[in-house]
Amino acid sequence: MEDEIQLLLQNKANHRQAFDKIVKAYSERLYWHIRRMVHSHDDADDVLQNTYIKVWRNIASYRGDSKLYTWLYRIATNEALNHIRQQKRLYKVGDDVDPENQASLSGDAYFDGEAAEAKLHLAIQGLPEKQRAVFNLKYFEEMKYEEMSEVLETSVGALKASYHHAVQKVKHYLENNE
Amino acid sequence: MSEFNHPYSKKDSPYKVPEGYFAQKQNDLFAIADEKIKRTSSVRQLSWISAAVAAVLALAIFLFPGGKPTELTSEYVENYLLSEYNYGFTEETLLYELDGEDLAVEDGWEFSDQAVEEFLDNNFDQTLHYEYY
Fold it and tell me: What is the ipTM score, two decimals?
């Protein structure tokens, strides 16, 4: 699918068709990635929409230097991080582990707080946003560090260190909230 | 490297979405792209129209530098008389010439004799034209 889209992107006349295929192929994956970052459905919906608006605006400038999916994840991750920062500025929330985040997550109608997996996601929501992105990309998306480096524009070494710290924090949360 | 193995499947998520969300969202995203295309082409079309209008205006200004005033001013009437009757009419002879006729100025600008006479009476100093001629 990625090759087919890359081919369509080479000709401006096919950009609309390429966009349709990108939406069909990636919107669900990108949604879940964004959702794990921002946690509420409404926020994820807004961020996904903004992501695709950026994709459409920049589709002509995509040169194929990076893989299409890392390019899409970069836009989605940046949009999610921007959204989180805006929310923090709005509500003046700190950057460290955020129990308020976790409390609001528990109250979300589209979050099953009773599910066994909920605890893990509550732990992830307590991570600082950049670490959260690193953890999600590595753990859930199973992305290689080299690809993550393209998405987050951070060195592989820094990403490994960030993931290590994130794992320690998540483990700590899970051990203390059994 | 840190290893992390949570006992639950990565596919099982506590997050839920409204029913039919993804299908609806895809349609919304297609609609957004269509809207953007429509708006871009409208803006492009508008740019072309604006450019064409600007070119026509520039040409008009170049070809007709004086332009045409929107109302009958003293300056306009003087200029008109200078250009059309530059062989030395006085105001008096001009009024005589115009007597009994409607004056068609330009492009459908029509004034009755009475209106022109009143205008000339009210706005022209008799001596002014003698100075010009």
Answer: 0.77
Least-confidence region, from A29-33, B23-27, B55-59, B64-68? B64-68
CATH code for position A18? 1.10.1740.10
SS3 B110: strand
A3 interfaces chain B, CB cutoff of 8 Å: no
Residue boundaries of the structural domains of chain B: 17-67, 74-132
A163, pLDDT greater than 50: yes
* Identity of the amino acid at B71: E
| Structural domain harbouring A99 | 2-176
Q: How far is B107 from chain A (nearest CA, A)?
A: 48
CB contact under 8 A, A163 and B12: no
Query: Using CB atoms, which residue from B1, B16, B29 is nearest to A112?
Result: B16
- The mean of the pLDDT values for chain B is 70
Do A56 and B32 touch, CB atoms closer than 8 A?
Answer: yes
Q: Looking at the 3D structure of chain A, how many domains does it have?
A: 1
CA B109 to chain centre: 21
